[in-house]
């Protein structure tokens, strides 16, 4: 299923539960999704490959954001902030604002069946602290052309990972424990 380049911003609650369990690939690249309450539903998706690259990119740099539907405007962040160049900055995530859970790890839940994740050019800026991924079959991650400027880690539970692309992220620090050997997972 390809839904690329549609300027999609929100997903109606319950819509992701309707995706057929037989679907293998979902591409929603070059859209403008706002982070909202529906994000927890993405973990119900059983696809094996997801492309969410170029998030927040408009078809035209001078385009204005479209107004949100009233249904969503009260329960999600429809308003988009812009930087001094007029670029959309509301999708920039700062992982440092998350509260640590349990023993200080930040848990990241991903769909179990997901094997390939494309997350290129998403205009996000944060460091990569210690993360633990839910049980997964993830083999391929392309998170290039973002701004992951400090790779602290470690990132736990990447037992099946065969390909990792973090190129062009303007990183200035890679911790000695960023990627631990498999026996430590």
Shape: globular
Looking across the biggest beta sheet, what order are the strands in?
Answer: 1-2-4-6-9
Radius of gyration: 17 Å
Major beta sheet summary: 5 strands, parallel
Mean pLDDT: 75
**Count of DSSP E strands?**
10
Strand residues, percent: 5-15%
Helical residues, percent: under 10%
Straight-line distance between termini? 33 Å
- What string, H for helix and E for strand, traces the elements in order? EEHEEEEEEEE
Number of helices: 1
Regions with little confidence, pLDDT below 50 for 5+ residues: 70-103
What class would the helix/strand composition place it in? mainly beta
Task: Give an overview of the whole structure.
This protein is mainly β and 185 residues long. 2% of the residues lie in helices and 15% in strands. It has 1 helix and 10 strands. The strands form 3 sheets. The protein has a 5-stranded parallel beta sheet with strand order 1-2-4-6-9, with no helix packed on it. A 3-stranded parallel beta sheet has the order 3-5-8, with no helix packed on it. A two-stranded parallel ribbon has the order 7-10. The longest helix has 4 residues, at 70-73.
């Amino acid at each position: 299923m390809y839904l690329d380049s549609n300027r999609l911003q929100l997903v109606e609650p319950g819509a992701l539960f309707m995706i057929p369990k037989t679907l293998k690939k979902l591409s929603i690249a070059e859209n403008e999704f706002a982070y909202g309450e529906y994000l927890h539903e993405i973990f119900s998706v059983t696809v094996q490959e997801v492309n969410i690259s170029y998030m927040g990119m408009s078809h035209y740099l001078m385009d204005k954001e479209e107004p949100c539907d009233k249904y969503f405007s009260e329960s999600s962040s429809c308003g988009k902030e812009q930087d001094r160049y007029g670029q959309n900055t509301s999708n920039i995530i700062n992982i440092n604002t998350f509260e640590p859970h349990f023993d200080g790890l930040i848990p990241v839940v991903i769909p179990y069946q997901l094997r390939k994740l494309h997350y290129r050019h998403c205009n996000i800026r944060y460091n990569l602290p210690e993360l633990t991924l839910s049980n997964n079959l993830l083999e391929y991650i392309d998170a290039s052309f973002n701004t992951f400027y400090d790779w602290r880690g470690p990132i736990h539970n990447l037992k099946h990972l065969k390909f990792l692309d973090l190129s062009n992220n303007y990183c200035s620090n890679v911790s000695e424990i960023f990627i631990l050997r498999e026996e430590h997972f």
